[in-house]
Amino acid sequence: MQALSGLFPSHLALRLKEFRARFQHYLMIKVAGSVVDETWILLAALFASEAGDFFECTPQEACRVPSPFPNGRGSRALPRNPHRDG
After folding, report:
1. What is the pTM assigned to this prediction?
2. pLDDT of residue 75
3. What is the DSSP letter of 42?
4. How many other CB atoms are found less than 10 A from the CB of residue 43?
5. pLDDT tens digits for the chain (86 residues)?
6. Residue 60 · residue 13 · CB < 8 Å
7. N or C: which end of the chain has fewer CB within 10 A?
């Protein structure tokens, strides 16, 4: 499958590919609308003194980010712990 992937255009937006090329490790965070401003302030304060960077995806870029959950249902699709009480 990976060999065939080179035959098709990249699904990632250019800015995401450039960011990935700049850093060995990166973290993509998706937050709810109620904490977007707080998250922005936190990241701006953190990266004012640390080596790193961040940016907010446009709606078009966010749609092109692959989901870590192939079924698209998010963390609710993870298996439950059968030994959990209750």
Report:
1. 0.56
2. 46
3. H
4. 16
5. 677 777 777 777 788 888 888 888 888 888 888 899 999 999 999 887 777 888 888 888 877 776 665 554 444 444 455 555 54
6. yes
7. C
Query: CA-CA distance, 59 to 12, in Å (whole number)?
Result: 13
For residue 20, report the phi and psi dihedrals to the nearest 5 degrees.
Answer: -60, -35
Quote the CA–CA distance of 54 and 56 in Å, as a whole number. 7
Residues 78/70, Cβ–Cβ less than 8 Å: no
Q: State how far the alpha carbon of 60 is from the alpha carbons of 23, 35, 57, 70, 83, in Å.
A: 22, 20, 8, 19, 41
Distance CA 1, CA 17 (A): 20
